[in-house]
């Protein structure tokens, strides 16, 4: 051990004790505030080793734009489905509102996605190729296909609403003829639109998102259903909004159940960010609002003011689910613990089970 | 679509018609002296800008902090005392006694490895060759050029591609900066380049506008294994400059063989803490193109202990999503058919 003239100024050194699982990385003290001795005085912490507490994986460089898109994409998908159902069951107001709602949601959501790119002017490169291995690529195609159909269907609605003011000329009969098929085409891509965003998040190295990979799609389609149902209840008179109410109720049931099941089934450490901080608060309120909206729908869904209030609560619930899950994932990527602990555990479990040939560390 | 997990030849998977040997690095951290020449050579050759303000981090001699958009080699420094050294040695011993694989690869290494994998280390001299009280771990980290690269798999534009050398490279002019790859990498390597350092600095002693313009702003950036040099038959800048040959470049297969021989040699010297990282094609990413020799657990160096490429589970995810989507259609059907239409 080297000595220095300042040694006499140090507090007396307690007897050495063997530490467990420590490393260079455990020392999180800010620069210059400590020496080796101070660490000895600390309660032995159970934190796993890491490299100075630095994250192992990088969080996706995605802003709230992407979280907003998760919500809007689901809302659009659910509305597209409602629109097609209204088409089939002859509910013109519900059909019109669902189509317009879906178009607005994809338009704003798509714009948010483009704005979030590092190079927005190159957004069209998303359709440069089709890659099954990339949920972002698959999703871009789904979004495009859905937008095309819903765009045509909604254009026809706008034309009707404005008293045939769109400068369509001879194309008007064509538009009227294709709006029905276009609505169904959009509906074919509506549920993929609502579900793929779950795969987009899960197919990453972000611990909390990846740990959700089996159940997140169920949460997201439920959330999409209750949001679209909610929008239908807000925009459409109660006589035509029956399916919207029922879709919302099924969505609430699915959302609450799937979320709980998911939390139970995922790695407990990776699930922690869902309960802490901003994400925890958002997810708690999301459940409360979903239940409140569901009860409101059940009790007062046929009274317009109550329907509107419930619908708004449901849409807020869906938005909070998306923002909460989004936030929890980013948080899990920023703390090395969420990457290291589950990985160490699963490695140890495999070794305990006698599987020793698939570790990245070998001799 | 090639294979999503398991051992494979990545170049063949990517349908290359020309055949080149798979290239890679073997970074032997046991002889790294922490000079950071690799960091400098990399920045120079690739014209990578400075990232962030120049700051002292207090993380030993590491003021680079991590790999990122403009840092494609990063030298980690860890200071350890006797207790930690002993633990590292012990965890290495456990690895050996597990009978870990150098198995299942055709070209098998020196006999000493086989001897050790029997788990009997009683005859081995375990006197620490270093000072027993303190050691410095230094390790030059780099993109792993994974056999199954999460970044490449999830890239929607095809900007990331597999080269004929089996490496993974971003095409700067194709990437639109969607950032999916950043989340897809299990090692936290690739990053979207921000304009962080583009602003002219006004701090004392520094000239305004002293930074050159930042190239490739907003697109994903990472180690290319000096693709531009490889096509010319040159050695990557970091390996070329490394004064101790801690960074070795060559054909992947040869490097893995060399790595196994080296770890056996260290074990024979009693350094049971030595272990390889990435040399196993059965691991979660199908083995890495950049192989490392470490002297402690991977997480001590900031490496994930059990990485698994996210796309290995992609088909499960798609199946679950399809089930969920079907459920949503069913829910809509119930919503419209329920209670005979207009009620509820
Ligand atoms: S280490 Fe990360 S960036 Fe490098 S090839 Fe593997 S997944 Fe891609
Ligand atoms: S940021 Fe660029 S390289 Fe990364 S996934 Fe997106 S398009 Fe591909």
UniProtKB/TrEMBL annotation, chain A:
InterPro entries, per the entry: Electron_transfer_protein, NrfD-like
Main location: membrane
Annotated compartments: Cell membrane
Gene Ontology cellular component list: plasma membrane
Record field: compositional bias (Basic residues): 16-30
Ranges annotated as spanning the membrane: 66-88, 100-118, 138-156
Record membrane topology: Multi-pass membrane protein
Ranges where the record places region Disordered: 1-40
Keyword Transmembrane helix among record annotations: yes
The entry's keywords: Cell membrane, Membrane, Transmembrane, Transmembrane helix
Protein family: Belongs to the NrfD family.
Protein name in the entry: Polysulfide reductase NrfD
TrEMBL record, chain B:
UniProt: [4Fe-4S] cluster 1 binding residues: 32, 35, 38, 242
Entries under Pfam families matching the protein: Fer4_11
Predominant location: other
GO BP terms in the entry: cellular respiration; formate oxidation
GO molecular function terms listed in the Swiss-Prot or TrEMBL record: 4 iron, 4 sulfur cluster binding; metal ion binding
CDD domains: FDH-O_like (cd10560)
UniProt cofactor(s): [4Fe-4S] cluster
Annotated 4Fe-4S ferredoxin-type domain residues: 23-52, 134-165, 166-195
Xref: InterPro entries: 4Fe4S_Fe-S-bd, 4Fe4S_Fe_S_CS, FDH_Electron_Transfer_Unit, Formate_DH_Fe-S_su
Span list, region Disordered: 106-128, 196-215
UniProt entry keywords in alphabetical sequence: 4Fe-4S, Iron, Iron-sulfur, Membrane, Metal-binding, Repeat, Transmembrane, Transmembrane helix
Binding residues for [4Fe-4S] cluster 4: 155, 175, 178, 181
Entry annotated with the keyword Transmembrane: yes
SUPFAM superfamilies in the record: 4Fe-4S ferredoxins
Residues given in the record as [4Fe-4S] cluster 2 binding sites: 42, 223, 226, 238
Transmembrane segments: 317-338
Co-factor: note: Binds 4 [4Fe-4S] clusters per subunit.
Localization, UniProt: Cell envelope
Domain of life of the source: Bacteria
CC per GO annotation: cell envelope
PANTHER family attached to this UniProt entry: FORMATE DEHYDROGENASE, NITRATE-INDUCIBLE, IRON-SULFUR SUBUNIT (PTHR43545)
Protein name, entry field: 4Fe-4S dicluster domain-containing protein
Organism of derivation: Knoellia koreensis
């Amino acid at each position: 051990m080297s000595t220095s003239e300042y040694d006499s100024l140090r507090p007396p050194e307690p007897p050495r004790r063997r530490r467990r699982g420590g490393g260079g990385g455990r020392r999180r003290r800010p620069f210059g505030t400590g020496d080796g001795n101070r660490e000895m005085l600390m309660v032995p912490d159970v934190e796993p080793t890491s490299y100075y507490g630095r994250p192992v994986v990088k969080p996706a460089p995605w802003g709230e734009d992407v979280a907003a898109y998760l919500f809007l994409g689901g809302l659009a998908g659910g509305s597209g489905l409602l629109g097609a159902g209204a088409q089939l069951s002859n509910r013109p107001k519900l059909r019109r509102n669902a189509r317009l709602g879906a178009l607005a949601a994809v338009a704003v959501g798509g714009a948010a996605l483009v704005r979030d790119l590092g190079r927005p002017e190159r957004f069209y490169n998303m359709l440069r190729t089709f890659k099954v291995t990339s949920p972002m690529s698959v999703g871009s195609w789904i979004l495009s296909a859905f937008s095309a159909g819903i765009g045509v269907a909604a254009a026809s609605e706008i034309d009707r609403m404005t008293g045939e003011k769109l400068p369509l000329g001879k194309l008007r009969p064509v538009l009227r003829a294709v709006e029905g098929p276009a609505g169904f085409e959009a509906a074919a891509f509506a549920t993929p639109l609502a579900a793929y965003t779950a795969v987009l998040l899960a197919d990453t190295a972000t611990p909390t998102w990846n740990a959700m990979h089996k159940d997140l799609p169920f949460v997201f389609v439920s959330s999409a259903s209750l949001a679209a149902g909610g929008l239908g209840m807000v925009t459409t008179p109660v006589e035509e909004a029956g399916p919207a109410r029922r879709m919302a109720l099924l969505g609430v049931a699915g959302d609450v159940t799937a979320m709980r099941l998911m939390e139970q089934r995922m790695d407990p450490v990776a699930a922690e960010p869902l309960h802490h901080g901003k994400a925890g608060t958002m997810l708690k309120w999301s459940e409360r609002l979903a239940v409140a909206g569901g009860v409101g729908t059940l009790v007062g869904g046929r009274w317009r003011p109550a329907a509107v209030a419930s619908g708004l609560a449901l849409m807020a619930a869906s938005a909070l689910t998306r923002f909460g899950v989004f936030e929890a994932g980013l948080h899990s990527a920023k703390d090395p613990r969420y990457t290291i602990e589950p990985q160490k555990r699963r490695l140890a479990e495999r070794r305990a089970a006698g599987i020793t040939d698939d570790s990245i560390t070998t001799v | 679509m090639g294979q999503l997990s398991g051992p494979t030849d990545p170049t063949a998977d990517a349908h290359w018609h020309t055949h080149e040997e798979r290239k890679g690095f073997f970074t032997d951290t046991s002889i790294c002296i922490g000079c950071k020449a690799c960091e400098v050579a990399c920045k120079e050759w690739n014209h990578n800008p400075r990232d962030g303000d120049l700051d002292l981090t207090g993380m030993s001699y590491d003021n680079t902090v991590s790999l990122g958009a403009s840092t494609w080699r990063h030298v980690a420094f860890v200071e350890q005392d006797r207790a930690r050294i002993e633990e590292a040695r012990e965890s290495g011993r456990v690895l050996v006694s597990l009978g870990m694989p150098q198995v299942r690869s055709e070209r098998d290494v020196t006999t000493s490895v086989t001897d050790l994998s029997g788990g009997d280390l009683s005859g081995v001299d375990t006197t620490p060759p270093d000072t027993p009280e303190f050691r410095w771990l230094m390790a030059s980290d780099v993109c792993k050029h994974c056999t199954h690269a999460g970044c490449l798999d999830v890239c929607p534009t095809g900007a990331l591609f597999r080269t004929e050398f089996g490496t993974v490279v971003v095409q700067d002019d194709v990437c639109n900066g969607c950032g999916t790859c950043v989340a897809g990498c299990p090692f936290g390597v690739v990053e979207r380049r921000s304009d962080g350092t583009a602003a002219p600095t006004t701090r004392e002693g520094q000239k305004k506008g002293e930074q050159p313009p930042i190239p490739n702003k907003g697109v994903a950036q990472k180690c290319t294994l000096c693709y531009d040099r490889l096509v010319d038959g040159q050695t990557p800048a970091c390996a070329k400059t490394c004064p101790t040959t801690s960074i070795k470049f060559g054909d992947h297969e040869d490097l893995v063989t060399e790595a196994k021989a080296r770890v056996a040699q260290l074990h024979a010297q009693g350094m049971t803490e030595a272990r390889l990282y990435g040399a196993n094609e059965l691991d979660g990413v199908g083995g890495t193109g950049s192989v490392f020799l470490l002297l402690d657990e991977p997480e001590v160096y900031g490496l994930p202990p059990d990485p698994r490429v996210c796309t290995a589970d992609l088909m499960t995810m798609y199946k679950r999503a399809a089930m969920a989507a079907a459920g949503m259609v069913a829910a809509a059907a119930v919503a419209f058919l329920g209670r005979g239409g207009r009620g509820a």
